[in-house]
Amino acid sequence: MDVEAAELSLAAVAGAIADPARSRMLCALLDGHARTATELAALADIGASTASGHFLRLREQGLVEMHVQGRHRYYRLSNAQVAQALEALLAISDHRATAYKPGTPSALKHARTCYDHCAGEIAVRLHDALLRADWIHMREKDYGLTEKGTDLLARLGIDVDSVLHQRRRLAYPCMDWSERAPHIGGALGAALLDLMLKRGWMSRHLDSRALTLTAKGATKLAKTFGFER
């Protein structure tokens, strides 16, 4: 990229950030959580139709990415570089972004079922641990199993061959509505929940989607996936 093109590109990005409504939206995403279009529009104090143009501008400049799940459109910062740039600008402006505070009931926030897989704080931590330890890897919009992951899941007692040959997606990032970060959906997510329930690592609540992480489960997750206890 030549100097003039780089300057024009910088100006375009700066222009996208400079609008007060767009800067509020970006700052709201600095905590790493995703938010819906409706939530971001409310935070920016603008209508949905106006917000859609702002979202388009932010996506065109590579500042945010959109994740569609059901009826909802979630937005999050595109990458760590965007967050770092915003943090630097906030330092210059001597302003701190407001922390995200979900209003989800604590029992559901900690762990619950999402269709046939696990959701909530525990599920998001499990998702992050599997990525960090290289059990799974991103493959386009889904996750694939690494050789290491295939071997270790089999050692845990999961029938990996059965999981791989189901007529459904193997694994994908399912946006968690309380954590606003992905947990693992698909056949692998279902197999992991089934394993944790059968081994007594988790138990179901009666008449609720909430799950309880047992003492045994806390120990096993810490040992197997490196969870902090």
What's the arrangement of secondary structure elements?
Layout (H helix, E strand, L loop, with lengths): L2 H16 L1 H9 L6 E2 H8 L3 H13 L3 E6 L2 E6 L2 H14 L12 H5 L1 E3 L2 E3 L1 H12 L3 E4 L2 E4 L1 H10 L3 H5 L7 E4 L6 E4 H13 L3 E3 L6 E3 L1 H11 L4
Antiparallel strand pairs: 1-3, 2-3, 4-5, 6-7, 8-9, 10-11
Helix pairs in contact: 2-3, 3-4
How would a textbook summarize the main sheet?
3 strands, antiparallel
- Count of structural domains: 2
State the share of residues found in helices, binned by percent: 40-55%
Sheet with the most strands: spatial strand order: 1-3-2
Helix and strand run: HHEHHEEHHEEHEEHHEEHEEH
Quaternary state of this entry equals: single chain
> What class would the helix/strand composition place it in?
alpha+beta
The total strand number stands at: 11
The backbone outline, from C-alpha atoms, is elongated
Number of helices: 11
Low-pLDDT stretches are: none
Average pLDDT metric: 89
The radius of gyration computed from the alpha-carbon positions, rounded to a whole number of angstroms, is 20 Å
Strand residues, percent: 15-25%
**Amino- and carboxy-terminal Cα gap:** 48 Å
